[in-house]
Amino acid sequence: MLNSLSGRFLILTTVFVMLAEVLIFVPSVARFREDYLLDRLERAQIASLTLLADEMIDPALETELLDNAGVFNVVLRRDQMRELVLSSPIPGEVYEDFDLRDPTALELIEDALRCLVDPTNRVIRVMGNPLRGGGELIEVTMETAPLRAEMLDYGLRILLLSAVISIMTAFLLFLAVRKLLVKPIKGVVGHMQRYAEAPEDAHRIITPSAGVRELREAEDALQSLQTQLTQALKQKDRLAQLGGAVARVSHDLRNILTSAQLFTDRIEMSEDPAVKRMAPKLVNSITRAVSLCENTLAFGRAEEPAPSMMLFNLAEMVNEVLEAERLAIDGHDISLSEDIPAGLMVRADPEQFYRVLSNLIRNARQAIIGTGAPGEINVSAQSGESDWIITVTDTGPGLPPKARDHLFQPFQGGVRKGGSGLGLAIVAELIRGHGGSLSLLRTDETGSAFEIRLPMGDL
């Protein structure tokens, strides 16, 4: 109970209300003390009127008048003369004087607190203004014990009333908090628990209904999070199924390509000049296809092999990739060019970097063919201070907004209709495996430019 939100709110409310009542209690007691002393002055003045009316009164009556006023003697100052009107024996010396003619609030509070904490019965002198022009000043002497007793009784009644008010207020607030906050929060927690049991079930997504603005915002955020998570889980489930199918296909395809690789060994022994010229390219293509199948199987097991780093001539590899792409252009008006120093050597995994360049150039070629207009693809490279910079530019239509928003994300950054968006995701992953980076320099209606940065490391 006390560890709950409503329980702690109940305790805090009670404490704060009591604190507020204490702050009110001190000036209230000070005001009660002032009223008590003024009442004694008024009674003393009324008692003195009897003597003024008849200068000779019985001593017993005088004593009765002083007891009724609660004072020992009464002094009036009139016409610049100080006159002892009523008197009786004083049990001790006057301890302190208090002037009530023009006291400040701080003085009243200080005097009241000193009276409360001092249990000693003392004799004090109190001065004030007489009522209805009854003179210039009236003074009385009195004991502090009755005053302190009255102040304690008043204070206890104030504290008891404050406690009752604070408890009632806290209880009402407790009920309000349970209805307006705790119950809706428990409802949200219940939704979260039911959703956690079956996050793939879209029917368990929360429907915002809270009337409190902050809680409604929390429900809206939870609904958005649950919707995204449900979609992501469904997509991951489809990807898992697709991964299993791709692994089976890659396994069978690898066996077929291995058999084809054996046949290419015989083709290489042919005396036909055209066959001799095309056979090495065919062998390289089949080798790369077998390697791709093996890498796909490894990727399905979440075991993408680490790159085998070695130095190779970048210009030769780019020429090889461009030659393969020229075969796929098939009569389209697309020019392929490269601007790479002939002796530029880079350190990377040749097979993986071939896949990187092939994916980027193929994406550019398909984008240009999709427009039906002529285009150009260029690959350039240079050596920086600490890395190699390779840039692939094209004059295609540029990337659409969806592709830019989900760049390098599989199954979301596709450009072509029906495209999966895997190409750029694979390229980015391979480059990260080399310790490098892939970035989009620009994309607009005049084309796109991708930049690859490979760290040189210790050559």
From TrEMBL:
UniProt-listed SUPFAM superfamilies: ATPase domain of HSP90 chaperone/DNA topoisomerase II/histidine kinase, Homodimeric domain of signal transducing histidine kinase
PROSITE patterns: HIS_KIN
Catalysis: reaction(s): ATP + protein L-histidine = ADP + protein N-phospho-L-histidine
Pfam families: HATPase_c, HisKA
Zinc found in the keyword field: no
Domain Histidine kinase positions: 248-458
Record key words, sorted: ATP-binding, Coiled coil, Kinase, Membrane, Nucleotide-binding, Phosphoprotein, Transferase, Transmembrane, Transmembrane helix, Two-component regulatory system
GO MF, one example: phosphorelay sensor kinase activity
Name of this chain's protein: histidine kinase
